[in-house]
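User: Fold this; tokens only.

Assistant: Input:
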Amino acid sequence: MSPAIDPAELDLLLAREYFSRTRFSSLSGILAVSLMAYLHIQAAPGRAAAWWAAMVAILGLRGGLGQFAVTRWLDARGVAPALRAEMLLSLLLGIGWGGSLFVFDSGTLEPRFYLRLVIVAAVVAFVLSSSTAFLCMPLICAVSVGPIVLAYLMRHPYIEPHDELIAGTLVEAMVVLTLAYGINRRVRAAASNHLAVIKLSRLLEKSARTDELTQVLNRRGILEALSSELAKSARHALPLSVLMADIDHFKAINDSLGHAAGDEALRAMVRVLTEALREGDSLGRLGGEEFLVLLPMLDGDGAMAAAERLRKAVAAIDSDHEGRRIPLTVSIGIGCRRQGDTPETLLGRADAALYAAKHQGRNRVEMESTN
């Protein structure tokens, strides 16, 4: 079964992809604007320069908005504000492109008129191909460009073929909106499937490192965390201590109260340990009733104090199963990082300390041997 996809999460994924391309599309727009202005610079230098400057300014703002949205805005303020700003800039660009037919109109039918139509049509096609993840963008394009083009054609009867161009503009607008809707559905479906695959992959990765019963790290997960913490502490010459903890008389709990009571004992111990540990500490189940606790930045004295706190917290657990009290105590062995330690050597000393705690009566904490 695929993980449920949050629409807001899908919009954020699509917005990141969309705004990451805004700088490129704005640069492409500047090239198209420059081409349009170049075609008319000799016939209407003032209008061409003014139109070019206004359009380049809007495109520059749009490119800057895209970069800002990806790096800051989307995470801090969400998708909606960025889209509203983009819609406003797109509306201005649409008005600018449609208005270019009026700006550069010479009052006579000339070859450059058809070039203007081709450039505007190419811009509309580019918008359609690059922005349909959000339907509002092609809608803005159609609403801003289409009516202006129609108004221009209807106001200038000398343009030929007159009726055919008007009809073609209406047909193009309908085709653009229809294609935009179809592409939007496909893009969002593909993005949704991609997001579902990512989420499923993360769930599988998490489950591969999570103990199913207690929901803490399993043996693989905690040993990977130990390797990472050991490398970090060795690289920066920082202290690191590990606690090997084992529930006392766990077999007796299973034998006398049943395996369900044993499972409850494991969960109760995890709840207590999780609450008592610091934010940067790690807890994992090595297997059976044995747990490993990683204590970064703690040396022997600090680790001893932390282990005693955990031991007392477990002993104070008031846990029961089907009305029968579950007696819980824990024995803990401490190992502290030494120069040249590997995960195996550090765990070996903690395990030997745990054995000593068990041998000396249980429900106690023992430090590793100094030898």
